[in-house]
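Lecture 7 notes: from sequence to structure.

We start with a single chain of 229 residues. Read the sequence below before looking at the structure.
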Amino acid sequence: MIGRPPHVKICCISSVEEARLAISAGASALGLVSSMPSGPGVIDDRLIAEIAASVPPPIATFLLTARQDADAIAAHHAACRTTTLQLVDFVAPPELVRLRRLLPSVELVQVIHVADEGSLEEARMAAPLVDALLLDSGNPNLPIKELGGTGRTHDWRISRRIRDEAGVRVFLAGGINAGNVGEAIAAVQPFGLDLCSSVRESGHLSAPRLEAFMRSVHEAPARKLSSRA
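Now the structure, written as C-alpha cells:
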C-alpha cells in the first residue's frame, strides 16, 4: 500500500522552546542527549526531565543514554522520565532482557552504528529484544567513542538490508539533510528519520531549516511500505 512519509525525530533538543519549535514543524519525536564521550547536544539530566515533562502526547521523548548496564539505564530513566530510551552504545542481550523486565512500559531503541557486514549481525541480535533500531554513523571502537551526532552518512545498502530483516521499526540517522532525504527514503524506506545538525544554525534549532527539511520529506516520491514499516 502507499504510505505516509516517515516519522521525523529531531535530536539534540536543548530547551523547552526548541521542543515547541520542533513539534510545531511536524516532529513526532524529540531526542534529549545526556552525558556522552563526544558529540553535540549534551544537556543536564535535570533539563532533560524538564523538557520531557513539557512535551504533550503523542510526541515521543527519547533519552539518549550511553550506559550499558540495565540497572544503570533504569536509574537514568528514573531521573529523566522520557517515553523512550535510545541506547547509543552496545547493550548485551542479557542486559536488554533485564531492562525490559525493569521498564516494561518504556520503549527501547537500540542504536546500531553501521560500519560493515558485522552491523547486520549486531542488528539481528538486538532486534527481537527491543521496540526499534536506529541506524547511525558513529564509531564506538575509537579511543574516544563516537556514539552519534557525527553528521556523516553511512552505507545505506547495509541499512536497507537491516531494515528488510529487522522485523521492528527502523530509524535512519547520520548526515541526513534536506538535500539527500529523498534519496535516503528511497534507499532505506525507514519508519523514521533522525537528525540534528542539519536543522541547526549557529548551534540553535532553525525554523527555516526545519521547514525546508519537512518540505523535502513530504515531497519525496510516494513509497510502497511493507507491513513492518
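The helical segments are 16-25, 45-54, 70-80, 93-102, 118-126, 156-166, 181-188, 207-219. Keep this in mind for problem set 3.
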